[in-house]
Each structure stands twice: as structure tokens, then as C-alpha cells.
Design goal:
The structure holds 2 protein chains of 2 kinds. Chain A folds into 2 domains: 2-77, no CATH class; 91-298, MetI-like fold, CATH 1.10.3720. Helix content of chain A is 71%, strand content 0%. Chain A contains 13 helices and no strands. Chain A is flat, with a radius of gyration of 27 Å. Chain B is 24% helix and 35% strand. In chain B, the strands form 4 sheets. In chain B, strands 6-7-8-3-9-10 form a 6-stranded mixed beta sheet, sandwiched between helices. Chain B has a 5-stranded antiparallel beta sheet with strand order 13-12-11-14-20, with no helix packed on it. A 5-stranded antiparallel beta sheet of chain B has the order 15-19-16-17-18, with no helix packed on it. Chain B is built from 8 helices and 20 strands. Chain B starts with a strand and ends in a 7-residue tail after the last strand. The chains are: A mainly alpha, B alpha+beta. Chain A binds chain B through residues 192, 194-195, 197-204, 208, 212-213, 216-217, and chain B through 47, 50-52, 71-73, 77-79, 81-89, 98-99, 102-103, 146, 150.
């Protein structure tokens, strides 16, 4: 064999680090190590949450935070869902989970709907002052919620909605509109104006064009808005703790009360199960719609 | 019968005057082409007729009815866009049905109508496809079909063929012409392509900077342009321009263009010529031909460049310090640098005042 082949080792003079193949392997190794580190950073706590929630209290007290449960039991989950004492009632989280759903679903749907219509009007039906309205809405995104707590409290009391789920829905809708409007407006700018004109000539009005032409083009941005709003409203603690009472409190408040109760033994397994229950809806939403979310986040960038 | 009347139409965007006092009357069944360079306001004028843009002052009448403040959908018009503007999430069939459904026509009547027009445009096999699955030419057919099923009083075309390749453009042009001949519906067609304008128009409107320059039959605008802009804008290669002065001697008028004196005895002056008046004499390349013997006016000039276009030869000739272009038949191939005798077709001359740039 006289002809050298690619598979043969290169002359020894150029060391292994300088060969192109070895460099690529090194780069890959560093990349995967970094990714593994980041993955561990996020998955580690989730692992501890899940494994602890299936342990019994004696096992937790015997140490071994990272170990898998010896005798897995769902008792902590049953307790967290239906029996744990939160404040003075001992009915578990299920009532508060219901409160959160009743608050989050309408608030998400309404704020996304209004944001879509606003964005459509701002992007495709320019009216005098549209730029000012949009600027004001953008500014609305930068108002820290702490600033508005007192005025909102007064407003809700005046409306007779203080401490009710409806009051929380109203506040979340109002403070969701700026971000959803901005999201939809920016997306709708990429919808060709000729489409709107053609539809107008064809006889369609403002809402017909919106529902028949524009919305069907926008599943990705709708998913982005739904996920952003659902996550934000479901996880909100500040408005929830400020404007709810024990009967209307959402999950976040209940979880805080459960974990921070100061009497008795700290039931870590129950706390962990409760935390997973509180995080589950947003997690499930991401798993179901995550593909569309990523697509939506990048769609505007390439369409131009 | 007047179908569309545009009266004293102005459009301003802030201080920018996009349309300046446009007046135009369009007879029923005419095919009007608005022609001009980009930014001349031709598309804006079309959008105003469609009702998609509001005018700053003036009035629009369609079919004897003042529609200045009427919504586009109530103007009985249909429009074809350069970008096709097909609804991307709907099938071809739904695209064509949309306008009629919006008008509350029962589906039992819409179906056969859509299928008939689809057959007419040879897109009946595409009815269940999405616009994204069609080629550019097919999309434009669908866009035309969508306008056709509505059976409107007026068709509006906004540069409908600009996105197509040259060959497809030519065949679609022919089809649009046939379509108009068979339907006889009034149409306004915007383009910057002079070939489209010349071939499609029953009358064309040449615009520049928001003003109408000339309205007339294509051959009239081509052969008797009212000013230098129109003369220069139409024709490919462009009209030859020779600067000079008029010489009026009794009844005899001629133009001294330096290298030659061109007799203008047969020229129909629109304004009285003055001795010494600075003028620009225009003559199209096809009116400069190698001599066959019967010409009234001949010159001997040196070719400096020859371009073969296939159908004829464009010969650049040195004339004094300037150059003029003649369009020679392919069998008349002069040699570079060897003088040839060419004849000017004096009946095709255009003479413009050098100052006002208007035809005289």
C-alpha cells in the first residue's frame, strides 16, 4: 500500500491538538460539558422536588437528599392535594388550585383577545393618534406593579371587587394588555397590507378581516401570547397576595402559606408535592405548545 | 357614457402633494392605462378610485354615482394586486368565493360561478390548492379569477404582471387583453411598463410627479407626445433629441440643429414658430432608416456602434458632436466608421420648445 489514505494517522510532527479532527472533538466536548452543567442546574432541583415528594418523613429526616425514595409513596401528594392545613382550614390545595384556574383562564383568554384586536387595529387600521396610543401602551409594560398596588386596591374596593377572583381577573387583564398588544401589533405589521385591502374590496369589514384573514395567519403568535400570559398570571404572587382573601386566594398564595406555616413539623414531602402541583400547569403548557412557542418567537425575525 | 369621473382630485401627505388637481373622464368599456415612473402618483390615483385611500379634495364618480365617501366594498369594483394578495390560509376556491360570500350570495349560486370562471382562466384543476402551492403565473390567474367572479362594474389592476418573468408577462398581457375584449368591462390598469401600456390601453394616461402629462390613444401618445417628458418616457430605445434653433423665412420653416438643417415645411405646428426660437427636435429610431431612394431628407453619417437585438440592428450614428440612434433592418448592416446615407421620416418629427419643453 503506497498511497496514504485519510484514515491513516498524520505525520507525528503536528501534534494531536493541531489536527482539525481533534480540535472539533475538543470543541464538542466543551460544548456538551457546558450543556450538561446547565441542564443539571435546572433539572437538579426538579429531581429533588420529585424524589422528596415520594419519600416518607422518616426517610427524609434520615438524610440523603439526592437518593431515590426507598419505598415510594404518593401519600404526600394526597395530603398536599386534599388534607394539608393552610391557615386555619385543612382541605389541601385543591380549592386554591380551582381558584387559580378560575382566575387564570378567563384572564388569559380576555387579555390575549383584547391584545390581538388592539394590535390588529394599531398595525392595520392607522388612526390619528395611533402612534401615541402605542407609545403609551409600550410605556405600560415598564410600570412596576408595586407602584400601582395602592391605587388598584382603592379601585377594586370602589368597584366592590376587592378580595374576589373577578377582581384579580380584571387586574390581570388590564396589566396584560400592554404586552399582548405589543406582541400582536409587531406580528401583524408583517401581514401584507394588500391582503387587508383585497378583503376590504371583497366586502369584509374590520372584524371579518380579523377573524377570517388575519387570525388564521397567526397561530404562532397566539401561542406565544397564551404561554406568556398563562405563566405570568398563574405564577403571580404580588397581586394575588394583595387583593385576595382566604377564600379567593390562588395557588401561589396558598403554597406560600403552606410552606411558611410556623407550627408543627415541616413536612418537606408535602411541601415538595405541593410545589410540583403549583408548577404543573405551566410545565404542561410548555410541553404541549413549546414547539409553537419557539417557532413564534423566531417567526417575525425571518419573515421581515 | 361616462363610467368614471375624477374631478379636481388632490391628495396630500402632509406638505407632500402626491396628486395635483387630477381630472379624468373614462367611458364605459374603456381600458385605461396609467403610466409613469415610480412615485408619479399612478398607484395612489388607483387606490383613490378603489376607495382604499381618501382624497384630500375633489370627487370621484362611478356609474353616475358620487362615491367620494363610499366604502370600497360598496363601489362595485374589483382589484388585482401586484402581490396577488391571495388569502394564504384559504384554498383557491375559497379565495374566489370570498367576495361573493361576503355579499351574502347563496352558495348554490356561487359554486357554478366560481367553476365557470376557473375554467375560463384554466385554473379549474387548482381549485383545492393553497396559494403557496401555486406558481407566480397561477397565483396571478387566481387573483384575476377572484376579481372576475364578482362581475364588477370596474376592474382595477395595480401592476399585476410586475412580479412575473418576461415570457409569462407577455402571455398574461395577451390574456388580459382578450379578457377585456370579451367582457367589455371598464378597466383601469397601473403600470410602469410602456409595452404593457401600449398594447393594452384603449387610452393611456401618462403621469409625472402627481400630474397628468398626456391622455390619448397609445399611438397618438407615442407619435405625438405633448412634451419632452412623454417623448422621452415612451419608446425603447428612446427618442433621439437634437438641440437647435428655428429658422423662419417667409413660409418656409426649418430647424438648424448644428450638423444639419431639417426642413419643417410639412410639420403641423401647434403654436406659431418664431425665428431663432430654441427648440429640441425629436425623432424615434425607427424613423431613421438606411436610404431606399424616396426619402425627402437624407444625411450621410458615420456609425460608431452597432447593437444587434435579433429583430433589428440599432446603429449609433455620429451627428455633429452628438449621437443619434437608428433602427435598421437586419439585412442592412453598415460597417463601423464607413459613412452611410440615412433618411429621416419627416412626418414623424416632434418639435419641442427648449424652454417650456412643450410640443410646438
Amino acid at each position: 500500500m503506497s498511497a496514504p489514505t485519510d484514515a491513516m494517522p498524520r505525520p507525528a510532527r503536528s501534534g494531536w491538538l493541531t489536527s482539525r479532527r481533534s480540535k472539533a472533538i475538543l470543541k464538542r466536548t466543551v460544548l456538551y460539558l457546558l450543556l450538561a452543567l446547565v441542564a443539571f442546574f435546572f433539572a437538579g432541583p426538579l429531581y429533588i422536588l420529585l424524589s422528596t415528594s415520594f419519600k416518607t418523613m422518616p426517610e427524609i429526616q434520615s438524610g440523603g437528599l439526592m437518593s431515590l425514595p426507598h419505598e415510594p409513596t404518593a401519600q404526600a401528594w394526597v395530603t398536599a392535594w386534599g388534607e394539608a392545613c393552610i391557615g386555619i382550614t385543612c382541605g389541601g390545595l385543591k380549592g386554591y388550585f380551582g381558584n387559580s384556574m378560575v382566575m387564570t383562564i378567563p384572564a388569559v383568554l380576555i387579555s390575549v383577545m383584547i391584545g390581538a384586536i388592539n394590535g390588529y387595529a394599531l398595525a392595520k387600521w392607522p388612526f390619528p393618534g395611533a402612534r401615541f396610543v402605542f407609545a403609551a401602551l409600550v410605556a405600560g409594560n415598564f410600570v412596576p406593579f408595586q407602584v400601582v398596588l395602592a391605587p388598584v386596591a382603592v379601585t377594586l374596593r370602589t368597584l366592590g371587587l376587592f378580595g374576589s377572583v373577578e377582581g384579580l381577573v380584571l387586574i390581570h387583564v388590564i396589566y396584560g394588555i400592554p404586552i399582548t398588544t405589543m406582541l400582536f401589533r409587531n406580528f401583524f405589521l408583517s401581514v401584507p397590507n394588500d391582503l387587508i385591502k383585497a378583503a376590504r374590496i371583497d366586502g369584509a369589514g374590520f372584524f371579518w378581516i380579523f377573524f377570517r384573514i388575519v387570525l388564521p395567519l397567526s397561530p404562532s403568535v397566539i401561542v406565544v401570547a397564551l404561554i406568556l400570559q398563562f405563566t405570568g398570571i398563574w405564577n403571580d404572587f404580588l397581586f394575588a397576595v394583595s387583593f385576595s382573601n382566604p377564600s379567593s386566594a390562588p395557588m401561589t398564595v396558598a403554597l406560600n402559606n403552606l410552606v411558611n406555616s410556623n407550627f408543627g413539623v415541616k413536612e418537606y414531602n408535602v411541601h415538595m408535592a405541593a410545589t410540583v402541583i403549583a408548577a404543573a400547569p405551566t410545565l404542561i403548557l410548555y410541553i404541549l405548545l413549546g414547539r409553537y412557542f419557539l417557532r413564534g418567537m423566531t417567526a417575525g425575525a425571518v419573515k421581515g | 357614457m361616462i363610467d368614471i369621473r375624477i374631478s379636481n382630485c388632490n391628495k396630500n401627505y402632509g406638505s407632500l402633494r402626491v396628486l395635483k388637481d387630477i381630472n379624468l373622464e373614462i367611458e364605459r368599456g374603456e381600458f385605461i392605462v396609467l403610466l409613469g415612473p415610480s412615485g408619479c402618483g399612478k398607484s395612489t390615483l388607483l387606490h383613490i378610485v378603489a376607495g382604499l385611500d381618501r382624497l384630500s379634495s375633489g370627487a370621484i364618480e362611478i356609474g353616475g354615482r358620487d362615491v367620494t365617501d363610499v366604502e370600497p366594498k360598496d363601489r362595485d369594483i374589483a382589484m388585482v394586486f401586484q402581490s396577488y394578495a391571495l388569502y394564504p390560509t384559504m384554498s383557491v376556491r375559497s379565495n374566489m368565493e370570498f367576495g361573493l360570500r361576503m355579499r351574502g350570495k347563496p352558495m348554490a349560486e356561487i359554486r357554478p360561478l366560481v367553476e365557470e370562471k376557473a375554467r375560463m382562466l384554466h385554473i379549474d384543476h387548482l381549485l383545492d390548492r393553497r396559494p403557496s402551492q401555486l406558481s407566480g403565473g397561477q397565483r396571478q390567474r387566481v387573483a384575476i379569477g377572484r376579481a372576475l367572479v364578482r362581475d364588477p362594474k370596474v376592474f382595477l389592476f395595480d401592476e399585476p404582471l410586475s412580479n412575473l418573468d418576461a415570457k409569462l408577462r407577455a402571455s398574461m398581457r395577451t390574456e388580459i387583453k382578450k379578457l377585456h375584449q370579451s367582457l367589455g368591462t371598464t378597466a383601469i390598469y397601473v403600470t410602469h411598463d410602456q409595452l404593457e401600456a401600449m398594447t393594452l390601453a384603449t387610452r393611456m394616461v401618462v403621469m409625472k410627479a402627481g400630474e397628468i402629462q398626456q391622455v390619448g390613444k397609445p399611438e397618438e401618445v407615442y407619435h405625438r407626445p405633448v412634451n419632452l417628458f412623454v417623448a422621452d418616457f415612451l419608446g425603447n430605445p428612446g427618442m433621439n433629441f437634437m438641440k437647435g434653433h428655428l429658422r423662419v423665412d417667409g413660409n418656409r420653416v426649418s430647424a438648424d440643429v448644428g450638423a444639419a438643417t431639417i426642413p419643417l415645411d410639412g410639420y403641423a405646428f401647434e403654436t406659431a414658430p418664431a425665428n431663432g426660437q430654441a427648440v429640441v427636435v425629436g425623432l424615434r429610431p425607427e424613423s431613421i432608416q438606411p436610404v431606399t431612394g424616396s426619402e425627402a431628407f437624407v444625411l450621410t453619417l458615420k456609425p460608431t456602434l452597432i447593437e444587434h437585438t435579433g429583430s433589428d440592428n440599432l446603429v449609433v450614428l455620429a451627428m455633429g458632436g452628438e449621437e443619434i440612434v437608428g433602427k435598421f433592418p437586419t439585412d442592412m448592416l453598415p460597417k463601423l466608421g464607413e459613412p452611410v446615407t440615412v433618411g429621416f421620416d419627416l412626418g414623424r418629427l416632434s418639435v419641442f420648445d427648449a424652454q417650456t419643453e412643450r410640443r410646438i
